[in-house]
Each structure stands twice: as C-alpha cells, then as structure tokens.
Specification:
Largest sheet: 9 strands, mixed
CATH topology of one domain: Nucleotidyltransferase, domain 5
Strand order of the largest sheet: 8-9-10-5-4-1-2-3-11
Protein name: Piwi domain-containing protein
Distance between the termini: 13 Å
Number of strands: 11
CATH superfamily of one domain: Ribonuclease H-like superfamily/Ribonuclease H
Pfam family, one: Piwi
Structural class: alpha+beta
GO molecular function, one term: nucleic acid binding
Order of helices and strands: HEEEHEHEEEEEEHHE
C-alpha cells in the first residue's frame, strides 16, 4: 500500500503497481525456457480453519510451463490434512479439461507440487492418466527439515548465492536454496538461507530438472520485483487461495482465473 510516509520508497510503489496488475488479471513476466518437458504444474495445499478446527480440502493452483497462473480451485472440507485420492484425480481432470479448452490438446506431462509430505497413494492418482498417455510427476516441497546453506570464506560461514542445488546419489530427493545473495547478505541479519527439500513420489523426470523447475517458479511471484517467495508459486499461491476461501472471498469448487488472492 502506498502511504504518505512511503511515497519515496521505490519498492512500495513498484509492488503496489504489480499488485494492481495482478488484481486486474495481468502477468508482468514469464519464464523464458522452463527446464524439462512439462506442460503445466499443479500446486496442492491444505489449510486448517483456526475457528472450527476443520481443514479446507484440496486447494489447487495451476501454473503453465512459462510461469503463467492458469486457474485455481478450492475443494470441500476434508477430515484432516490429507487429500483424498479421488479429490486429486478430480482436480487433475479439471486441469486436463481446461487445458484442452485453452490449448486445443491435452497436456503430455503434469508436475504436481505438494506442500509438505505426500501421504496419498500416488499409484492410485497416476493410474487413470497413464491410461490416456499423460505423464505425472509428484514431488513433496518441504519447508522444514532441510539444512541451511552457506559458503566458507576466510574461516567464516557466509551467505551464499541463491539457486544452489544438492542432489542425492539415488536421484530421489534434493535440496535447493531459493533465497540468498544478491537479495540479502550478512548486513541484513537474516542468517544463512533455509533450503527447501524436494522429494520425488512419482514420475521419471531427473531430480535436477525438478529442482530447477522449483527454483524458477520461486522467482515467478507477480507481486514483487525485488525478492522471491522462497516457495514455488505453485504451492505459495495454493496456500493464498485456501486462505482466501477460508475467509469467504472465494466460492468453494469454483475455477478461478488469474490471481485475485495475491
């Protein structure tokens, strides 16, 4: 928000302008070349209502391969922070239908980002799409449980540049820094960057490609021009969508175009 006391703050002015662009349905930038053969991403998130203790179900955010937000949707209440497999399949069918409507053909590869751990039966989710030739990758994107990243210089640990990848030898998981230099350094007092842990649950896409995709999606937030969201916009916007639904601003089950919740 622009106020009298921040009129000379270029970040406030720019971010307010970007928020207006987003609210009007605009996309100020895109990813030029997304790694891999992905056609679209689906971010899934669950959010508990603090007043009732119930959980909002499958809140989904669909992002095209160039980082453009395609559609979002919130499902009905679930009994816990675990999505029902049928609910996820229904969401993916909605994604396929809307993709065909917009692009004229089905996506050949969909990458699902789950905020936190995947507890669902991934084989049950993938099976219906194997039958129609759509490849599905499913990965956890975990905020906690990953080490901090730093570089040793002159005997001291210093903040490293963002975009560092660390891949397990079995290629089933890896770590990624989406914050760090040049966004901030030691003078900001923020400490060394907290990495994300990305774990494969289904699919054959190389882990390096999956990590690179997460990185570029963390750089695709349309509401700020000076920093990443740490999380990819797939799960970050799914959380925002769920929060807006919980507060009564979105209709349950409605397909939402654009990003009115940013």
């Amino acid at each position: 928000m622009i106020r009298e006391d921040n009129l000379d703050n270029k970040w406030a002015v720019r971010n307010t302008a970007l928020g207006l662009v987003a609210g009007a349905g605009g996309i100020p930038w895109r990813v030029d070349e997304m790694p891999g053969e992905v056609d679209c991403f689906v971010g899934l998130d669950a959010t508990r209502d603090p007043k009732t203790g119930q959980f909002l179900g499958a809140s989904a955010n669909v992002v095209l391969a160039d980082g453009t937000v395609f559609v979002s949707k919130t499902q009905s209440l679930q009994s816990g922070e675990t999505f029902d497999e049928d609910a996820i399949i229904d969401i993916l069918k909605d994604v396929n239908r809307e993709f065909v409507r917009a692009e004229g053909d089905s996506p050949s590869n969909i990458v699902i980002h789950r905020d936190g751990r995947v507890f669902e039966d991934v084989d049950t989710i993938v099976e219906p799409f194997d039958e129609i030739g759509i490849e599905i990758d499913i990965v956890d994107v975990r905020k906690s449980g990953a080490p901090r990243a730093a570089i040793l210089q002159n005997g001291d640990f210093q903040i490293d540049h963002k975009g560092q990848l660390f891949i397990a030898q079995n290629d089933e998981f890896g770590f990624l820094t989406t914050t760090g230099r040049p966004e901030f350094d030691e003078s900001d007092g923020l400490g060394t960057p907290r990495a994300l842990r990305v774990v494969r649950r289904a699919g054959d896409t190389p882990m390096q490609t999956l990590l690179e995709q997460v990185y570029w999606l963390s750089e695709s937030h349309i509401g700020s021009d000076q920093g990443s969201t740490r999380l990819p916009i797939t799960t970050y916007y799914a959380d925002k969508c769920a929060e807006s639904a919980r507060e009564g601003y979105l209709i349950n089950g409605e397909l939402i175009r654009g990003v009115p919740y940013v």
